[in-house]
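Record type: monomer structure entry
Structure origin: computed from sequence
Chain ID: A
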Amino acid sequence: MRQRLPLFPLRQVLVPGLVLPLTIFEERYRVLVADLLERPEHERAFGVVALRQGRDAGSTHRASALHAVGCTALIREHERDDDGGYQIVTAGAVRFRLHEVDEDAGTPYLTGVVSPLDEPETPPDEAADPGAAETLTLLAEEVSRRWMTYRERLGIAATGLPEAETPAPVVLSYLVMAGMVLDLPERQGLLEIADTTTRLRTERRLLHREDVLISELRSLPAVDLASAETSPN
């Protein structure tokens, strides 16, 4: 079902479940936040969608400047600055597909026509397989082990994963997506994958690639990218 959603284009990918703090100082985004704060708390959502190039969608109102899949952000905390801006803390919620930008929205910020995306566990051609659930469980356990090893070899504390059990496969797929050192196209590609099994398989391949780089080439990815603070709008 299509719906209209305020958009906040960024040069980064928001992952469901990820906490995203933002400093709001541009006038159009001050208006966006003010509009959302007039709504009930559970309706204070906007769409974070990654830019294909540049740092701002500007006033072009072109969907072609934005990636086709984004993630809704719910405002969890907010504080008004003395200069009229905002400090907000958001949390990624639901993936969505951007169909078009509503050029007649009448707001200084972009408004997209979007539809929420489901998160099936398996691809359609494997859904009828009676062993699909067991396959997904085994896949998640393998990815979890590789993920823990990856973080240990980078010297990063393995936060976010319970010691005694593997998280639910979809949660694990988002944790890995958010925490791996990836460039924007790769992270965006993971966000766009339609089902959990395919995403975990892709992450298994990426983790294997990083293991080879670390082990054979003795080259570490740029660890600081994994913990870089969000740039203000």
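Annotation 1: The chain has six helices and six strands.
Annotation 2: The mean pLDDT is 87.
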